[in-house]
Amino acid sequence: MNAGDVAVVVLLAIGVGSALLGAVGILAARDPYDQLHFTGPATVIGPIAIAGAVLVEEPLSSAGIKAVLVALIMISTGPILLHATARAARVRERG
Prior knowledge:
Elements: H1 3-28, H2 32-37, H3 39-57, H4 62-94
């Protein structure tokens, strides 16, 4: 196992771990606003780590470019979706 393989395994573990911890946090939180806080790492850390793993494994290939594009889309739309969800929850609570 060379350094590239170790880097891929570590980056994938970070990406999947952030998604799993976010899911556990969502299940543990009681209030919808607290649940929204746990989506942050899954929408920021996860895509960056997984795209990094793909780039280490397949640099400058179509898979690497697609991974970076997907990560950029997730990072840019995550806060927008989070805000829209929080606003919808607030409107539902208060009318």
